[in-house]
Amino acid sequence: MDWGIAHMRYIRSRAGGGQWDMLRENVPEAWTIAYDKMRFHIRPTGFKHMGLFPEQAVNWRWMQEKIRTRVAALKTPVRVLNLFAYTGGATVACLQAGANVTHIDAAKGMNQWARDNAVLSGLGESPHRVLTDDVLKFVYREGRRGNRYDAVVMDPPVFGRGPDGEMWKLEEKLFELVSACVGLLSDAPLFLLVNAYTAGFSPAVYGNVLSAALAQRKLSAPEGPPHNGVHVGEVGLLAKSGSILPCGMYARAVWP
Hints:
single chain; about 260 residues; seven-stranded mixed β-sheet; two-stranded antiparallel ribbon; globular
């Protein structure tokens, strides 16, 4: 990153939250960026985020490849469940690859942003639904209804609240959530991807959680190395210097 040409800088407050310091004049309130054939609205928010996590592009490409290969082979749509789906980066990527997506987030504003991104990318009429709900409650209801998905992707926060004030703490709920999502997989699953940003856990912890959830449900992922075929790793951004800026972790189970 060349900080000499930066337009904005986020200043964190000791009391929580923060604000953007404008380093140049005439910075727009919002703008649109393009990645591949996808389009996204971007704007600075009071909680630092800009409406997109660009390091997730590697996961978008990976999911798109898996979805397109499955659709081409079986000529049937892939049902994807996107949890803690934010402004819909993964939703748009999966829609573009030909999936049918159910997008869940507890924040109405983020969900409207996701709808806008789908329309902006020319996918407004693609098969998807965007729902405002508590993620864990929704997953349990889907299980009782007998609804199943070929792929699940989640991006759980360290801490959060549902639309009715439900408390979410990652360290207390992660295994419960992952286990419940394993139960939603179809008879021919494609992948289950867990993204994470907390520095309190290592990638191995997320891999162990996913492996244990698969074992509990007597389900294994045949692709890849041992430990039930669960892959773990880090995602990051390539700096101008050539260094990788670590931005998060993932664990994923993959089926052919």
